[in-house]
């Protein structure tokens, strides 16, 4: 025997009419009582969330910025005298050393001018010898009143004039020697020379505006990056507060990534920062010096420079997935207290380090921060916390 009834006491199905008549009043009363006792559903179990426990740890603080390479030294080769290029004594694109001859200008006119100047010097020296000998003879004679004082004074003036002619001639010789030397064009610095803009047979003009070649020193090489002024202030403030510890000789280490994404193998160091802030960009130029023994880096290349600012000995890192943003864009995280209740905590974050944010304010060591399940919880909820660092149970 079975029956079904709704909560209004109406019997819908029965299999034994006689038996039903006997027990119907009691059964209907029991059914109605059961409907009256229907209450609220049982409370759901606490929401399960995964958390990480924050630990203070030493972390290297870095800043990655775009930059450009600049030559350590650059020299423009220009002719100092006019003449026809007689020889080119280097290979374009090769390395040259300071003092190495690069060009030979036709030197015959300058050699002739030098020889002529030397002849003038010899003539002046001969005239000075004659004037000095005459003056030496006139000395005793004037004391003996054999010659007049005027004659002696004239001899003395002639000897002084002859000495002046020697000095003038010497200057002309030196000038002619300089011009003759300029017919040989030398590398002013050690470096790599580019293409030659004048060929053999071309006319070089003294002090022309255009250069004939450029020598660039590539090892070492500079990397100039634009650092926001606020970052520079933060960097110096954290150093003063002792949050950042510098290494070695108290210079910041720099590494770079090339434009194709590969990492440059030689680390460098930060040399200096500009003393003025660019008003249009609010940035400061920071210059790093990089070794370049293989000449891989060339001036004008675009790179990403990573400045190793130092080490924060008590840094707190929170996974990026745990950080939410409110309507104003401010970061906040869910924190689990000792009673396994959650609360939303505003925090201050610095730079991204890998998949984590560097927390500068709002959290402390040993606090538990929710990393999974944070979309299903509300302030004050009791949760079932699972440690993300705990090994997963088998089966």
TrEMBL record:
Residues 315-376 form the Multidrug resistance protein MdtA-like C-terminal permuted SH3 domain. Transmembrane segments: none annotated. GO terms for cellular component: plasma membrane. One of its GO terms (biological process) is response to antibiotic. It is found in: Cell envelope. Residues 74-215 form the Multidrug resistance protein MdtA-like barrel-sandwich hybrid domain. It comes from the Bacteria. Gene3D superfamilies: 2.40.30.170, 2.40.420.20, 2.40.50.100, Helix hairpin bin. One of its GO terms (molecular function) is transmembrane transporter activity. Its main location: other. Residues 220-310 form the Multidrug resistance protein MdtA-like beta-barrel domain. Residues 114-183 form the Multidrug resistance protein MdtA-like alpha-helical hairpin domain. Belongs to the membrane fusion protein (MFP) (TC 8.A.1) family. This is Efflux transporter periplasmic adaptor subunit. It comes from Novacetimonas pomaceti. The lineage of its organism: Bacteria, Pseudomonadati, Pseudomonadota, Alphaproteobacteria, Acetobacterales.
